[in-house]
Design brief:
6-stranded mixed β-sheet; globular; NTF2-like_dom_sf; single chain; 183 residues; alpha+beta; Nuclear Transport Factor 2, Chain: A; 3 helices; SnoaL-like; 6 strands; Nuclear transport factor 2 family protein
């Protein structure tokens, strides 16, 4: 493999590792998975998110307490991602869409961008600095979900803010009865 192709392949691998770091952090937040969350950050990272400014451990503890008090479910969606890599440092801009089901029967919707600095240490890309730019947010009333009335809708597992979530079940399988509804 020539040098130009090898450099391009390494850039693609680095970019994918950085994107994996972002999705790992988002999944960990929604599943309240402390170990997975902390694996996305260097221990000396600093994060500014809404009213919070602090370390990864402090962020996880603060966000978990807030979510336990206010939310029954959260979804951190990673959208457009731009990343500039220079050696073992990278700067990223990642659009996000955030949704939360609140315990008071409302929903929060918010959109913004994560401005991140990553460092590659010991061969691993992790977040070192995060600034969360919230560009818009709204609170909307919750509506009943008619799908929850289906008799076996949760037979394949339930959504949970823990490792009891269906996404952790292995091997993945279907136990619901075959059903192709009429249109």
């Amino acid at each position: 493999m020539d040098e130009a192709l090898a450099a391009r392949m390494q850039a693609l691998l680095d970019r994918q590792d950085i994107l994996d770091c972002l999705t790992r952090m988002s999944r960990a937040t929604d599943r309240a998975d402390r170990d997975l969350f902390l694996s996305a950050f260097h221990a000396d990272a600093i994060i500014a998110a809404g009213p919070f400014v602090g370390s990864p451990v402090e962020l996880f503890d603060w966000a978990s307490a807030l979510q336990e008090q206010a939310h029954s479910a959260t979804f951190h969606n990673i959208l457009n991602h731009h990343c500039e890599i220079e050696g073992d440092t990278a700067h990223g801009e990642t659009y996000y869409l955030y949704a939360a089901a609140n315990r008071d029967q409302t929903n929060i919707l918010a959109g913004g961008r994560y401005l991140d600095r990553f460092e590659k240490r010991d061969g691993q890309w992790k977040l070192l600095v995060r600034n969360n730019l919230i560009e818009w947010s709204s609170i909307v009333p919750a509506l009943d979900n008619p799908l929850n009335a289906l008799p076996d809708i949760h037979a394949n597992g339930i959504a949970a803010r823990s490792r009891e979530d269906a996404s952790y079940l292995r091997p993945l399988r279907n136990v619901r009865s075959r059903n192709v509804p009429q249109v």
